[in-house]
Amino acid sequence: MTAAVNREIHLAARPHGWPTAENFRLVETAVPEPGPGQLLVRNRYMSVDPYMRGRMDDVKSYAPPFALDAPLDGGAIGEVVAGDVDGFAPGDLVLHGLGWREYALVGAASARKVNPDLAPVTAYLGVLGMIGLTAYAGLLDVARMQPGETVFVSAAAGAVGSLVGQIAKLRGAARVVGSAGSPAKVERLRALGFDAAFDYHDGPVRDSLKAAAPEGIDVYFDNVGGDHLEAAISALRPHGRVAICGMIAQYNAATPPAAPRNLALVIGKRLTLRGFLVGDHGDLRDEFVREMAGWLREGRVAYDETVVDGIENAPEAFLGLLRGENLGKMLVRL
Amino acid sequence: MTAAVNREIHLAARPHGWPTAENFRLVETAVPEPGPGQLLVRNRYMSVDPYMRGRMDDVKSYAPPFALDAPLDGGAIGEVVAGDVDGFAPGDLVLHGLGWREYALVGAASARKVNPDLAPVTAYLGVLGMIGLTAYAGLLDVARMQPGETVFVSAAAGAVGSLVGQIAKLRGAARVVGSAGSPAKVERLRALGFDAAFDYHDGPVRDSLKAAAPEGIDVYFDNVGGDHLEAAISALRPHGRVAICGMIAQYNAATPPAAPRNLALVIGKRLTLRGFLVGDHGDLRDEFVREMAGWLREGRVAYDETVVDGIENAPEAFLGLLRGENLGKMLVRL
């Protein structure tokens, strides 16, 4: 090891509404020594994800809140540099949950070796990892999309959304519509094979969705909430399903926006709205990896990455993600 | 036949917000003559139900809107008085869909003979009919209640709600909580075997529900929407389910009230919200009738009826239903 210093990002203060740079603090610590059963990992890539915004609040949720004045955490890929654990050797690349720091002390049970010859290592933080499984399980298991159906996905140029649209087409959707936040993203969606795409800044989502899917939709994969969800409820056909993956539109609202005023339509249309977390769908992982790896090999799935360099820029990468500045998966290279 | 005059209730004007007597008109017509395949039925009881409010608006929905200046319709039980149709004879009691009139001309295919020796005829408009099946299918098929769970039902002293609570107990719910709109109704719920009941006028629903189910709930059977649904979403435990049967709180709102502001909780708790119509659950009818008839025979299910006399009072019966003046099933005796 050449560096004796580890740099990590701490939560300095909880945000009210939109987080800012002041909510984070770059802290230098000594590189720790691995104890029994521990690996010292030099992180190479870390993930920033929308769900992390929720963990910055001090509320009970599915994941515990980040602690103040302690490093944040999240998905990361790094190289084992020390640690005497059976089955691991220096140089091994491992996937684990202690991002937001240059060096991580990882319990061996929490580390999963990844093979850089099968796919670029960043794929394990995205298309072949939790992100891909989120898209796959949400679309096929939660929303139970059937061939011939029309699918709408919001935040469609994001890491999850862009995969939802592509998986839908590969699994036989008749029509796939995506919404995104810029003309460049809309253009990218068309290149990815979406049948229609619109910029949600261009007018009421309800109108844009109606133009893009005049016959209505059967499935809505919700990453946004708010007016997107309301528009989808109006557009859904009888027996339509909504997989609710995220509601990024309201993560930063000090007062949550009104939920869809047309919610009563769920009765007459017999709609199902279902929230989900990818962690409940581990039973699909093997099937997912097999199918997705095949699609990647055949060049039938494309994925975008937006990479920011340096731990010191991780907060800005996260803030940029919340502002929608990423195309595809947002990563920090360490 | 002694009466040559038929009286029926027409929709005189579409309501804006709460309907009033002015939206209805009592009209006298000649008693019609049955044509081939038709039965002339002298109605004995007609049903008024909350869903009829939706049909008074001129909006596309699961059921077509009532036409202006024409009789309303809905569930009714009557006696065949004329008509030459195989399988039917004068004096037969039939269940059909042409209520809101004293005499109905019913296509034989739309009439179902009922046996008054098996159950009081009004039961076929309630506990053994669509009302009972709505409670049964919503609780067991839509919300998939499991033994040992905690169930909350709103409008619990109504026709559907009171059955939901009793079926839940009979099928092994650990705890059943109901909300209603008066102290007398709350008392009735306790007599029906509800473990806890509260008057929603007594304070925020969220607080009352928390007191009644401090450990949270697993299933919410929604007849009300609005603040009841919001409170339920807060109280639901992970993997909880909501069967959305009605949203009576908003049927009469000119502007729909805000939907639950805490809707984003569906993600972390992995909640499922599902709207349903009883018409989709006909496959359960035989099982339901068998099980419910058994419970009735054994005296394990009780049901209330609020009966108003005379076709001329049908509008007031319906308006009283919307105001919650009924205990159990609201019926009009003709």
Describe the largest sheet of chain A: 7 strands, mixed
At CATH level 2, the architecture of the largest domain in chain A is Alpha-Beta Complex
Order of helices and strands of chain A: EEEHEEEEHEHEHEHEHEHHEHEHE
Please identify the oligomeric state: homodimer
Helical residues, percent of chain A: 25-40%
Low-confidence stretches of chain A: none
Radius of gyration of chain A: 20 Å
General shape of chain A: globular
The averaged pLDDT of chain A comes out at: 94
Counted beta strands of chain A: 15
CATH class of the largest domain in chain A: Alpha Beta
Strand content of chain A: 25-35%
What's the CATH topology name of the largest domain in chain A?
A: Quinone Oxidoreductase, Chain A, domain 1
Report on this model:
- The structure is a homodimer of 334-residue chains.
- By secondary structure, chain A is of the alpha/beta class.
- Chain A has helices at residues 51-55, 130-142, 159-170, 183-191, 205-212, 226-235, 248-251, 265-268, 285-297, 314-322, and strands at residues 5-11, 24-30, 38-47, 76-82, 93-96, 103-107, 112-113, 150-153, 175-180, 196-199, 217-222, 236-244, 272-275, 305-309, 329-333.
- Chain A is built from ten helices and 15 strands.
- In chain A, helix 2 packs across helix 3, helix 2 (130-142) packs across helix 9 (285-297) and helix 5 packs across helix 6 (226-235).
- The two termini of chain A are 15 Å apart.
- The A-B interface holds A 54, 61-63, 225, 229, 238, 244-247, 250, 255-277, 280 and B 54, 61-63, 225, 229, 238, 244-247, 250, 255-277, 280.
- Strand 13 of chain A pairs antiparallel with strand 13 of chain B, so a sheet runs across the interface.
